[in-house]
Amino acid sequence: MRYIRCRQLFGENFEKFKKVKIILFGVGGIGGHCLDALYRTGIKNITIVDFDKYDISNQNRQIGSENLNKVKTEVLETLYPGITSIKQKITKEWVEDFDFEDFDLVIDAIDDIPAKVALANKNYKKYISSCGGAKRVDPTKIEISSIWKTTNDPFAKKFRYELKKSGFNKDFKAVYSKELPIKCEGLGSFVGVTGSMGLTLASLALQKLTVG
Fold it and tell me: Rounded to whole angstroms, how far apart are CA atoms 159 and 111?
């Protein structure tokens, strides 16, 4: 039985996982690993949203990136049969117009802050998010906390600032790294961190679905 180990671990919650409906924004270095973990846990009703194509620079960290110049959502739809894909650039305006009512959980693994702010404002009760994964090498520094308690992450700091600026005064859980970003050229990244952040985001999703 493919999911026997998951059934043994999660018990009656496993049946709940099979019925939930999730939407995942961003399937790059973090979101792709989050998708993989959720799918392997028996969750199939997942909609993924992204607009990008795989570039050779993605191959150090992204699932499916052997398919150069192909649309990420289309590739992942073949790797994970049963999921739904939406090829779409995620903008504030698109988020505001999209109907989230049917989804039990909204997972944000994108790096566009205006879109993240829009997602949080519209869905904070069923929303979880990831922060920056670049410029880090130590996965043991990854944590889950309130977005307002994230530290050492310039990306999370900017996110908090824009949330406050938008008038957002609620709360949600975020995955972030307490490791101070190292000095490097561009947005250097290590799959040991970005992948671990995706797996942690999947863990947070399961916790959110079982205990709220």
Answer: 10
Is residue 204 classed exposed, middle or buried when 0-12, 13-18 and 19+ CB atoms within 10 A define those classes?
Answer: buried
Domains in the chain with CATH codes: 4-211 (3.40.50.720)
The pTM assigned to this predicted structure is: 0.96
Per-residue pLDDT tens for 37-95?
999 999 999 999 999 999 999 999 999 999 999 999 999 999 999 999 999 999 999 99
Query: pLDDT tens digits for 176-207?
Result: 999 999 999 889 999 999 999 999 999 999 99
For 97-134, give the DSSP string.
HS--TT-SEEEE----HHHHHHHHHHHGGGEEEE---T
Q: For 37, list phi and psi in degrees, rounded to 5.
A: -65, -40
Helices (H), the chain: 4-10, 13-19, 31-40, 72-79, 92-97, 113-123, 154-165, 191-211
Average per-residue pLDDT in the chain?
96
Give the type of residue at 146.
Answer: S
Q: How far is CA 172 from the centre of its chain?
A: 14
Chain-centroid distance, C-alpha 30? 6
Three-state DSSP at 139 gives: helix
> How far apart are the C-alpha atoms of 130 and 89, rounded to whole Å?
18
**SS3 state at 175:** strand
Q: In whole angstroms, how far apart are CA 78 and each of 85, 92, 95, 110, 210? A: 10, 28, 26, 22, 29
